[in-house]
């Protein structure tokens, strides 16, 4: 699966690195690319989308509902 998600709260390179790190820790995620300008993360692999969303629960970022 290769899917893009809109990320709320994404504003800088540090933000992007945090989201990339959190998403990369999810079982089945093969790669993560975060684009600050479009505020989107593109994730590939065979992973649980709810786990991906939940991985940001302890941060100021979130996956926009329309992105799922």
What does this structure look like?
By secondary structure, the protein is of the alpha+beta class. It has helices at residues 13-24, 49-54; strands at 2-8, 29-35, 40-45, 62-63. Strands 2-3-1-4 form a four-stranded antiparallel β-sheet, covered by helices on one side. A hairpin with a 4-residue loop joins strand 2 (29-35) and strand 3. The protein starts with a strand and ends in a 5-residue tail after the last strand. The mean pLDDT is 94.
Query: What series of H and E elements makes up the topology?
Result: EHEEHE
Query: How is the largest sheet built, in terms of strand order?
Result: 2-3-1-4
Low-confidence stretches: none
Determine the number of helices (DSSP H or I, runs of at least 4 residues).
2
| Outline | globular
Task: Name the assembly state.
Answer: single chain
Strand fraction equals 25-35%
Helix content: 25-40%
Mean pLDDT: 94
Described by strand count, sense and barrel closure, the largest sheet is: 4 strands, antiparallel
Distance between the termini: 13 Å
Cα-atom Rg, whole angstroms?
10 Å
Number of DSSP strands?
4
Instruction: Determine the structural class based on helices, strands and strand pairing.
Output: alpha+beta
